[in-house]
Amino acid sequence: MNSIISPSILSCDFLNIENEIKIFEGVKDLWLHLDIMDGHFVPNLTFGIPIIEQISKKTNIPLDAHLMVSNPEFHMAEMKDFGLDNITFHLEASKNPIDTIKKFRSFYKSIGVSIKPGTQVSELSDDLLKELDLVLVMSVEPGFGGQSFMEGSLDKMRELVRRREELSLNFQIQIDGGISDKNVKVVREAGADNLVAGSFIFKNNTSEYLNKVQSLR
Ligand code: DX5
Ligand code: ZN
User: Fold this and answer.
1) Domain 4-215 CATH assignment equals 3.20.20.70
2) What is the pLDDT of residues 116-141, one digit of tens each?
3) Which letter, b or e, does each residue of 180-200 get, where b requires 16 or more Cβ atoms within 10 Å of its Cβ?
């Protein structure tokens, strides 16, 4: 499988969001990463259900929702008919992740679970990994764009690659936080299949966005 690049619109020009998104229309192996923060699970607030619904109506780009919220099931229920391609919730915010996945299995093509920098891969049980389409390793503390990449995430990805092989599974390994052309090589070698990048792509002129995506491939 080719690796996927997932631009995170957290760092986009929000007053011009429709035009910003259009730039990525039709690009192969690309997801649009939507960071949903509730000011509770993480200190910051972003956007939520009505904005995601509008985006889903305007674009054919695969949409990847990253829920940084204390009540993931509420959001998963509200967004179940938006045609999202992947939805990821945090292990730390979930009482029974396997139950949550089973409950929403039929509404989402792909469901992921994310772990914060302080959460170990060993906290993801074999039974949970068997239910997952994606594991998101956070390489910064969730909540803000533009932070520095945490090296400890590399060993986590290597461990996930090992577990995936041992269990003969095929979940994607996604990495999110501080990704740039400076660390992309080592991140991919460690096993990332799907790379989220926010400020590296969006903190440039719009004419540069696709070059930045290309430079991560
Ligand atoms: C952080 C978000 C990330 C963020 C990444 O909590 O989950 O998706 O947008 O931004 P950069 O690439 O700037 O670290
Ligand atoms: Zn994210």
Assistant:
1) yes
2) 999 999 999 999 999 999 999 999 99
3) beebbeebbebbbbbbbbbbb
